[in-house]
Structures are given as C-alpha cells and as structure tokens.
Amino acid sequence: ENLVAYIQYGINQVGEYDFEEEFDYDTIHSHLGQTFTLELVTEAAEVPWGMAFLPTGALLVTDRNGKIFKIEGQEAIELKNVPEVNSKNQGGMLDIVLDPAFDSNQFIYVSYSKVHPEDAELTTTAVSRYILSEDGLEEAVEIFEATPYESTNHHFGSRLVFGDDGYLYITVGDRGKRDDNPQDLTRSPGKVHRIKSDGTIPEDNPFVANPDAVASIYSYGHRNPQGMIKDPATGNMWAHEHGPRGGDEINEIVAGNNYGWPVISYGINYNGTVFTTETEREGMEQPKHYWVPSIGPSGMAYVTSERYPNWKNHLLSGSLKYGFVSVMPLRGGSLGDETRLLEGVGRTRSIVQSPDGYLYIGFRNFNQIKGNFFYRFFDFMHIMKSYTLGKMGLHFNGSSANVSYPKTLFYSTNGFVHHMNIPFGETRLFANEVAKKSNTTFCLHPNAEVTHVQNPSFKSWFREQRKNELILRRCKIVAQLSNGVLFLCRLTFFSLACILLIFGTPKIQFASAVLISVRFLVQYISFGIVAKKLSVLKLIIALPLFELWHLATQFIIFISSLKSKRLYWN
C-alpha cells in the first residue's frame, strides 16, 4: 500500500517539471532577487563534463567525447597527449581538477573511462596526473584505478575534488552492478575514494586497517555520484547521486559511512518493479535531500561569491533529465527548501564557480515538443553574470544618447555608461524622466530588478514604470495587430485616393484632392517646427515623400516586431 502511494506521488510530481515556455538564452533572468544574464563562453565541447580554471584565467574543459580544450578568450585550443578513453554511452573524458600547488608543480588530474589493456570490452574509472604544458599534457602518471573492470558502459561517477586535508576525493559509480559492488568493500565501484596526490593512501582512511578492503575507500553504498563539492564551513564533502526511477540523493560524505545503496532507496526499477521495500535501516545514512521523480543530477557548486549575494551559501545542482539548476541553502550541515533556476535551459552537465566569482555552467541544449524529445546537438558553455554595472567597463562624458529602433537608450550618471531596452514609450521623453528622477548610479531594464539605487522615490517610480510596462507587454499581440491594421488602412486610403485623383470624374477628383489635402494638413501639423521652415513648393514635394517613408517604416517595424516577438512601439 505504501509503495503504491509512493509511485502515485512520484507520477503526480512529474508535472512540476513541465516547462512549457521555451528557454530564452538572451533575456535577463532573476532568481531569489538575483538578476543575471547568460554569456556564451564556448561551443567547442560537445559534452562539457568538467571544468577547471588556470591562474591565468584560462578555462580547461573536458569533452566527454575524448577531448580537453583550453579556452582563452574566444580561442579554444584542443590539448595534445590526452588519455585514450572509452567514450561509449556514459564513458569518456570526464572530470578535471588542478593540484592545490599548481603554481609550483603545474599538476592537473583527469578522470576518464579507461579501457582494459588486454580486453577492449572491459572498462573502469581511472585518474591520471599530468604536467600541463602550453598545448598539451606531459608526464602521465596513473594514480587511481577502480577494480574490477566491468563490461558495462555506465555509472562511472568520476567527480574530483581536493579537500582541506590536501587529499583527492574521487567518486566511482556502481557500474550498473548494484548487487555486487556498492556494499562490497573489496571492490572499488559504488564508493567515494580518498587518496594522496601521488596515488598513495592516507593513513587515516577509514578502512585502511581492514586487510580485505580497498584501502582508498572513504564511504560506500553509492549508486552513481556525478556531483561533489567541499563545504567550506566544515571541510566535509557533499555529493549527489543518481537514483533509479526516483530516489536521486544529496548526501554529506562522512568517513566510513554506508549510504545504503541498494539495500535502502527511495526509488524503484525503471520498469516499475520493486528491488527493495526499505527506505531506512540502522547503520545506513539517510540522504539530506532526495528527489521523486528523479531529475538526473549532474554537476554541483557551492556559492561563496559576493557577485551573487542572494545565492551565497547555496548549493547548486544541475538536472540532466529536466534541464534546470536546483538551488538550496546549505548552512550548518542542513539543506533548506529547493527552488529552481534556469528552467528549461538544457541538460545541465557541469557547474563551477570561477576564482573571480562568476558561475559557469556546461549544458546540452534541447527542445521538448509535445512530450517527445527532439535534441539539437549544439552544446553550450555559459557564464552567469550578475547584472551589475562594474563589468561593463565603459566610460564617457555626457548625459544621454539614444537610437530609435529597437528602442535602446544609453545614458550616463556618475560617469558610467548604462544600457536599457525600452520596447514602449518615446525614448527621449523617457530619458528626460530618468534624468529628472535619478541622482545616483543605477541600472534599469524592463525585466531586471533595481540595482545600485539608494533613492527610495526613484525605486518606487521604477517599480511603477515596470508594472506599466508589464501591462503593455501583455497587450503585445493586440498592439501588433493594431499596427498592422493601421498600416493597411493608411496604405489603402493613400492608394485609393491617388487612383481616384488620377482616374476619377471631376467631382471625385475634387473630393480626393480635399481628402489628400486634409491628410497632408495633419501631416503638416505633425511636422511641427521643421515643416514650417519649408517653402510651400518644398512642402508639396516633401509631404507625399514623407507619407511614403512613414508607410514603409511602419511596415518594416511591424514585420520586425512579428519576427522578433517583441513590440517596437511606433
């Protein structure tokens, strides 16, 4: 009865991850009050599995298909002499990490699916240490090899993290052999391991005194951990792992603990059958959090950066299955309520915080069409940047400048250049309002929160402006249709009047001339001061040309707004 209720609960939860709107990579996003944009870093890696930053600011990215790239600016350099890997299914070039003393020894560590030297059908998780040269890897030393090798091509684990103790922590999945590996201390798979940087075993590893156990084992009873971070507050590792159908978990990794797989689980088999009825047992750890249904967690980061003050001390976990980033506060060894970031962004594979405080995510983009998945196989690496002023790095003297279509305003206060899209309203009038209301450096966007604003009256005014803009955005379709109808009516009137003026009877020609004159009189008034400076002859020539120009621009704006799904107010 409990199992039936559990399955029904899981089925009902699936709808939470049905993100109907297609993800917009170019918009400005907001989550927990933190506003940010996505900036494309590289498309070089087909499956960006792991990332590591060099002291120079360059980014090392592993591609599961068997490559490692060094990203410097816009250039992606494929490194030479990388390990040979088995890139079938979930195997390939996996994680990468720098030695804590990289500045002096230039060591990097790479995890990968290694092919057995005598049997190409067998693979395992291995870690090798290299010296990083300008364009490749040198002096390979294999420091870890999980045994036994298996004929399966999944559940390699492979996340690498250095702890405060200077030791390297390695996750290894159960290789799909749940009944053989995770609970057996004589086997490496299904464990978190801890080794020294040269591959030797720390003397205080929990099972080092057990002659039958694999000495590198730090914890066991894991299924397939593909995300791991170090908690700066405690120094303990936290890892998430894939469950079967339901039961993905987040655990705090403690030396010697048994995390239960497959004896206890909050999941069932993929075919709906049961492999265990137990969700807890004495001597086995309960997860700090679990997901039902499974989200397919991969990649994990802990935010310490001041660039994202509202996300500080939060744990980020990527979702392969539903394409979002899970966000949970992590304080005092406990997790808070989950929220979701970047819903529908794509199969999120890796997340890392850079030394300068920015968050990078690696993911595979996809579209979901009526329940069936259609994959577009371009894989992106994006950097989430807080929408602040300092990174723009632009300065000029002056008050404001603007361009017409699309409505984009650049204005300056306190010597900074700021940028704002204004899809509604008249640009110069809006600029004047900004100049009147502002007395400090600030950043403004229809989809953004107010940042760097201390003036309470301006904040109140901004929120009212944003509210009005949101109301107008909801009328976008009506406004576009109205713009199109207006264009057709004016075109019809102008064309019909000209035809009647040329080919009609004298009375009709007279009436047409009066109508055109009235229309031009209105246009004359709209010309304002500029038109009054023209002579009568020039005005007679200018008004028809202006009418044609007005029709043409209105048509272009109408078509552009339909194509871009954005209303350009005319």
List the helices and strands and how they pair.
Elements: H1 2-13, E1 29-31, E2 34-42, E3 48-53, E4 59-63, E5 67-72, E6 75-78, E7 93-98, H2 102-105, E8 107-115, E9 123-132, E10 137-145, E11 160-162, E12 168-172, E13 191-195, E14 217-220, E15 225-230, E16 237-241, E17 248-253, E18 289-291, E19 297-302, E20 314-319, E21 325-331, E22 334-335, E23 339-341, E24 347-353, E25 359-369, E26 372-386, E27 400-403, E28 408-413, E29 416-421, H3 427-437, H4 456-474, H5 476-503, H6 506-527, H7 529-532, H8 536-564
Antiparallel strand pairs: 1-2, 2-26, 3-4, 4-5, 5-6, 7-8, 8-9, 9-10, 11-12, 12-13, 13-14, 15-16, 16-17, 17-18, 19-20, 20-21, 21-22, 21-23, 24-25, 25-26, 27-28, 28-29
Helix pairs in contact: 5-6, 5-8
Show unreliable segments: 367-380, 382-459, 564-570
Going across the major beta sheet, what is the strand order? Answer: 1-2-26-25-24
Name the average pLDDT. 77
Largest sheet: 5 strands, antiparallel
Taking the alpha carbons of the first and last residues, their distance comes to 63 Å
Strand content: 25-35%
Structural Rg = 31 Å
Shape: elongated
Number of strands: 29
Q: Helical segment tally?
A: 8
The helical percent reads 10-25%
Task: Output the structural class.
Answer: alpha+beta
Descriptive report:
This protein has 570 residues and is of the alpha+beta class. The chain has 8 helices and 29 strands. It has a 5-stranded antiparallel sheet, with no helix packed on it. Helix 5 packs across helix 6 and helix 5 (476-503) packs antiparallel against helix 8.
